[in-house]
Amino acid sequence: MEFKNTLEFAKELDQNDPLKSFREKFYIPILNKKESIYFTGNSLGLQSKNVQESILDELEDWANFGVEGHENARNPWLHYHEIFPEMLTEIVGAKIEEIVVMNQLTVNLHLMMETFYRPTTSRYKIICEAKAFPSDQYAFASQVKMHGYDPANAIIEVQPREGKETIEHSDILEAIKTHGNEIALVLFSGVNYYTGQVFNMKEITTAAHNVGAYCGFDLAHAAGNIPLELHNWDVDFACWCTYKYLNSGPGSVGGVYINEKHSTNKSIPRLEGWWGTNKKTRFKMEKDFDPIPTAEGWQLSNAPVLNMAAHKAALEIFMEAGIHNIFEKGKKLSAYLIYILQDINKEKDFEIITPLKDNEHGCQMSVSINNNGRKVFEELKKNGIIADWREPNVIRVAPVPLYNKYEDIYNFGETLKTALSKN
Asked: Degrees (nearest 5) of the Cα angle 50, 403, 342?
């Protein structure tokens, strides 16, 4: 399609958008007494209008049943977490038995590393991308230190080349091959939080397995944003949060994928908890742990139902819209955003640091402003655009398919052009 940088063209795209009605299912934040242009779904997704009723249902059942709600609630709490794998299977590309919803992202990363980071004297290193999200970096460092290693030696960060912001895929594969005999775990983001770069998870997984290492991914910025085929790619494990593209609320429950070749293995090491043991004997309160032979076997505690009620409501919207329709619109939104950014950048006031190839980015575009970036960011906000600032000079914007319009992108471009002209 040949794009145009006009309001009429953007409105025409919106008129022909098969998902246009879904915007009405969300609350759009008000800024300066009007609907904002909300471009931070990569940080916190918007609240869908069915969330309040979903949580209220559980509050009413708690009031009416007390502890009996575990079996008598409309969605019995005892089994509440079991509704999610089927809802997530197409979103993350996994079998039902390979998915469990529990805890939060970094907690789950630690739990997965307790299983999949099993260092030996010769094979003890973790390989990851440079400038991974800080929480991941802290988790990696604390894990290697608890095993007696120095993070400076045990963590290998694959760096961008000189003068570049993103990492060459070939450099990742070469680093894995070069350090192969020393690597215990390869653990990358699916999408880098800062640049928006999508990593080739399939080939990274294959490269890790070829040198005898496990391979996992942090999908915080990938789940609900880009197509995933975790099972088909033979990924060992993955973790994600649900409050970004999955719209499940601030600090909402996290998700985990564990490949069936591991999740069915009862002897694989893990941290053990009551909710991971055999459901048939759980309430016999026996001493010995008998792990459930699915991803559920990594659960520690019973479900945070009020938290999960928001996740349930959000995923119902995804199921209604259809994940493939969401991804298709997401690609078109991103293509239009790239076009608008390039069209207004006549004076080379900024650089798009996110890769522009279709398979190397999702919804997010990271824009590096050459001069007075913070001033430009504040000007955007003053004009009703909620974006995201990252030091030293990057503005992240992420129009997402369920609630953003093409008109949002056009208006963003006009506002950014004006803000840059004031610099």
From this structure: 165
Amino acid at site 170 = S
CA neighbor of 376 nearest in space, from 360, 354, 393, 358: 393
- Do you know the residue count of the chain? 423
CA 154 to chain centre: 26
- The answer on pLDDT for 423 being more than 80 is no
> Do the Cβ atoms of 299 and 275 come closer than 8 Å?
yes
**What percentage of the chain has pLDDT greater than the value 90?**
98
Residues 196-212 pLDDT 10s: 999 999 999 999 999 99
Residue in 85, 89, 147 with CA at minimum distance from that of residue 113: 147
Helices 305-321, 51-65: crossing angle, 10 deg rounding: 140
Q: What is the pTM of this model?
A: 0.96
Which residues fall within 8 angstroms of residue 3, CB to CB, at 6 or more apart? Answer: 9, 335, 336, 339, 340
Residues 6+ apart with CB under 8 A from 400: 41, 42, 45, 225, 245, 330, 333, 363
| Average pLDDT score, the chain | 97
Q: How far is CA 351 from CA 15, 164, 375, in A?
A: 31, 11, 16
Summarize pLDDT for 8-55 with one digit per residue, the tens. Answer: 999 999 999 999 999 999 999 999 899 999 999 999 999 999 999 999
Tokens 């895929």 identify what position?
169
Rounded distance between C-alpha atoms, residue 182 and residue 267, angstroms: 25
d(CA 319, CA 51): 15
Extract the runs of DSSP E, i.e. beta strands, from 134-202.
155-158, 183-189
Is the pLDDT confidence value at 1 over 90?
no
Domains and CATH numbers, the chain: 7-35+323-421 (3.90.1150.10), 55-319 (3.40.640.10)
Identify each DSSP E strand in 145-285 by its residue range: 155-158, 183-189, 214-218, 237-240, 255-258
Helices 323-344 + 406-421 axis angle, to 10? 20
Instruction: Please tell me whether residue 390 adopts helix, strand or coil conformation.
Output: strand
